[in-house]
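Tutorial, part two.
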Amino acid sequence: MTRKPVHLAVYDTYADWETGHATAYLARAGYDIRTLGPTTAPVRSIGGLRVQPDLALDAVRPEDSALLILPGADLWDTSDDLAPFARKAREFLAAGVPVAAICGATAGLAREGLLDDRAHTSAISFYLAATGYGGGERYVDTDAVTDDGLITAGPTEPVAFAREIFGLLGVYEGEVLDAWYRLFHDSDASAYEVLEKAQ
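Running the prediction step on this input gives:
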């Protein structure tokens, strides 16, 4: 079965550690990970990694993608430079294609109004409240949330973020998904046996 690619947004100051679990195991499951920048010009992560995007934001259509992943970045809170990525997320969700946002990207989606009617989480409730968004009553104080095709997580939860992505896309399910999470989140060595049997 041919899978549509997963699109990982990359932009200056993006938090390179927040999506590593997700992209590594999506790639192992057969997904092509395509990086998506403001343009195709190189960007630099918070960690100093230089990344040459595969595609410019304007070149991506929801129907050609399995998922859009938006990592956090300093720029989500210091400028409007990343607002086009939030608008692209709106386009994806309207087309029924899922979006996963972590850390500062959740604030960008809040500003775009995409969290007003969906259960969601982030770093902490007052971080999103500072955006002036209308979804405060839908905030859930937990590690990661999936609602209506949108995954959200806070900056300390890259493993829970990946878990939600795998569950939504059907990469892992049930006992295997739980075991993957226990292994990488809790360092539960007994979970390794479940994953080995599933291979």
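The beta strands are 6-9, 33-37, 43-44, 50-51, 55-56, 67-70, 99-102, 144-147, 150-153. In part three we will examine how such features are distributed along the chain.
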